[in-house]
């Protein structure tokens, strides 16, 4: 074997940028999630904003008890995202679990690892999105069972919304929810939206609703807010990005109204 060359140390270190990207969004998703990561990549990530993902354990079926079991993993999941570095926002991407665990409990668990970082949950973002439209009477469509849907109805009613109709698809496995074709959501939205509803909330981060939201809005003639679209919108606005992205629905053209 030929002799190896001497390795030299370059005498001057290159100067460093403050951050590789100006803004940072953390995303905590389920181990089984097929949809949140691609959705945040297309709706949030850019040359200015980085999206950094951690997965936490989750086992189907999607029941309130199983969803609640994720709470202890939230702190460790948050701690794995750029340890000891600040984030501009962090999202826990599970709508049904956020409802059964509670927004305040999720915020506390995440901020135990990331103190002071704004925390976003999909139902919280959904409420903010519906408020941005000024709607109070809504229809809700979920892929869940009745058991898992019931806490969702309670959540939105407690925040002052009149629920004109609530439709669920009775799925138990979030991996199957992710396989519902976006095109099928147009007809589902049309059938699930009450004639007196002012808007539709499409729940579940597993659903590929962000790809169908403009079609759903055209189909029902009213605003549509989806879990991932609302979460992405909320995170973008927390990063100071006010760019209108109408290809992901009317919500993506609106400013965030602070609580």
Question: Your description of this structure?
Answer:
With 259 residues, the chain is an alpha/beta fold. It is globular. It has helices at residues 36-43, 64-68, 74-79, 95-101, 103-111, 122-133, 146-158, 174-177, 182-192, 213-220, 227-238; strands spanning 23-30, 49-56, 89-92, 119-120, 137-142, 162-168, 199-202, 224-226. The protein has two domains: 23-122 and 230-253, Rossmann fold, CATH 3.40.50; 124-226, Rossmann fold. The strands form two sheets. A four-stranded parallel sheet has the order 2-1-3-4, sandwiched between helices. A four-stranded parallel sheet has the order 6-5-7-8, with helices on both faces. The chain starts with 22 loop residues before the first strand and ends in a 21-residue tail after the last helix.
Summary of the model, kept short:
This protein is α/β, with parallel strands linked by helices and 259 residues long. Helix content is 37%, strand content 16%.
Helix content: 25-40%
Task: List the secondary-structure elements in sequence, H or E.
Answer: EHEHHEHHEHEHEHHEHEH
Query: Which regions have little confidence, pLDDT < 50, spanning 5+ residues?
Result: none
Shape: globular
Strand order of the largest sheet: 2-1-3-4
CATH fold field value of the largest domain? Rossmann fold
**What proportion strand?**
15-25%
Broad CATH class of the largest domain: Alpha Beta
Query: Radius of gyration in whole Å, from Cα?
Result: 20 Å
CATH architecture assignment of the largest domain = 3-Layer(aba) Sandwich
What's the tally of helices? 11
- Ends distance: 69 Å
Average of pLDDT: 96
Structural class: alpha/beta
């Amino acid at each position: 074997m030929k002799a190896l060359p001497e390795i030299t140390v370059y005498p001057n270190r290159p100067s460093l940028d403050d951050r590789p990207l100006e803004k940072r969004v953390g995303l905590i998703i389920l181990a089984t999630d097929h949809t949140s990561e691609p959705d945040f990549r297309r709706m949030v990530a850019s040359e200015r904003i980085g999206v950094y993902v951690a997965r936490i354990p989750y086992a189907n079926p999607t029941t309130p008890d199983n969803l609640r079991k994720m709470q202890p993993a939230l702190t460790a999941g948050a701690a794995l995202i750029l340890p000891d570095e600040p984030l501009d926002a962090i999202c826990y991407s599970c709508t049904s679990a956020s409802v059964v665990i509670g927004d305040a409990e999720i915020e506390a668990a995440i901020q135990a690892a990331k103190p002071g970082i704004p925390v976003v949950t999909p139902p919280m973002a959904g409420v903010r999105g519906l408020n941005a439209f000024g709607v109070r009477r809504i229809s809700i469509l979920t892929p869940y069972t009745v058991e898992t849907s019931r806490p969702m109805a309670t959540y939105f009613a407690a925040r002052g919304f009149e629920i004109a109709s609530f439709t669920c698809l009775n799925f138990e496995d979030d991996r199957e929810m992710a396989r519902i074709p976006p095109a099928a959501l147009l007809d589902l939205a049309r059938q699930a939206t009450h004639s007196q509803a002012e808007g539709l909330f499409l729940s579940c981060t597993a659903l590929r609703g962000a790809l169908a939201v403009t079609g759903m809005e055209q189909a029902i003639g009213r605003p549509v807010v989806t879990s991932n679209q609302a979460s992405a919108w909320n995170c973008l606005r927390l990063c100071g990005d006010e760019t209108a992205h109408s290809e992901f629905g009317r919500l993506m053209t609106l400013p965030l109204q602070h609580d």
